[in-house]
Amino acid sequence: MMTLKESTLVLAKIRAHHGNAPITDLEARTFHDELRADATLRDALEAVRRFYASNDSGRWMLSGDVNAGIRAIQTARIPDEATIGRLMEQAGIRSEQALAYRRELIKATKLGQPIQQAHALAVEAAHRQAIEAPKPAKPRPKRYHLAGCGQSQIGAMGLKDTLGGAA
């Protein structure tokens, strides 16, 4: 996640295209709060550059436009299914480890990690996540308590046995 200072820098870059209007504290905090949680400064600045490089309407870039640009940049980094499958096969990832591997690989590549570094992180995560299923608990013998259970056993006894010598 970007810091307030970094997101204010992105807002300042947007404002540079429209006359460098001063940024108030409220505007900076609001812009910061509206940005994606996984946004990086590099991706946000690239999103601004791409937006204004193709903007022929003169429209101001908003936080939603920055988020859409970041999403497009991050999505383009994700390797295709064939590459993911080849990397999993190369590392010997089993089917029960595949989900953890894919999640970590996609997360790392979206955030800008090189594919080999993301692969190493994903392999580590896959091996760390491979946890055996718990063994079923041994059945315990049924024990009846006086209150609530075992009425059939109590009812099977005679009244004298149940109440003792008071009956």
Give the terminus-to-terminus CA distance.
Answer: 77 Å
Number of helices: 9
Overall geometric form: elongated
| Element-level helix/strand string | HHHHHHHHH
Structural class: mainly alpha
Word description of this protein:
The protein starts with a helix and ends with a helix. Helix content is 62%, strand content 0%. The protein is built from nine helices and no strands. It is mainly α and 167 residues long.
Short characterization:
The chain is mainly α.
List the defining traits of the structure above.
167 residues, mainly alpha, elongated
Question: Layout of SSEs?
Answer:
Elements: H1 4-16, H2 25-34, H3 41-53, H4 63-77, H5 81-91, H6 95-110, H7 115-129, H8 151-156, H9 159-163
Helix pairs in contact: 1-2, 1-3, 3-4, 6-7
